[in-house]
């Protein structure tokens, strides 16, 4: 009974949703590092 409900999420659409969320998270992480981490490190090293 539980396995029947879990099989609903075995559709390729859910894989697409998961991979989209992961890729957006990685892009946000990269942008955060580029926009805040690198300037902070430069100012920290120069001060």
In words, what does this structure look like?
There is one protein chain. The protein has 47 residues and is mainly alpha-helical. It has one domain. The chain has two helices and no strands. It is rod-shaped. The relative contact order is 0.08.
Number of helices in the DSSP assignment: 2
Class from secondary-structure proportions: mainly alpha
Kindly state the mean pLDDT as a whole number?
A: 89
Low-confidence residue ranges = none
Count up the domains.
1
Roughly how many Å apart are the termini?
63 Å
- The coarse silhouette is rod-shaped
**Secondary-structure element pattern, one letter each:** HH
Q: Count the E strands.
A: 0
Radius of gyration: 19 Å
Share of helix, binned = over 70%
- What fraction of residues sit in β-strands? under 5%
Q: Which characteristics define this entry?
A:
47 residues; mainly alpha; 2 helices
Write the layout of secondary structure elements.
Elements: H1 2-6, H2 12-46
Q: In brief, what are we looking at here?
A:
The protein is mainly α and 47 residues long. Helix content is 85%, strand content 0%.
């Amino acid at each position: 009974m539980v396995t029947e409900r879990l099989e609903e999420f075995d559709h390729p659409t859910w894989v697409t949703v998961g991979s989209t969320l992961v890729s957006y998270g990685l892009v946000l992480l990269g942008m955060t590092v580029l926009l805040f981490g690198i300037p902070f490190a430069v100012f920290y090293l120069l001060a």
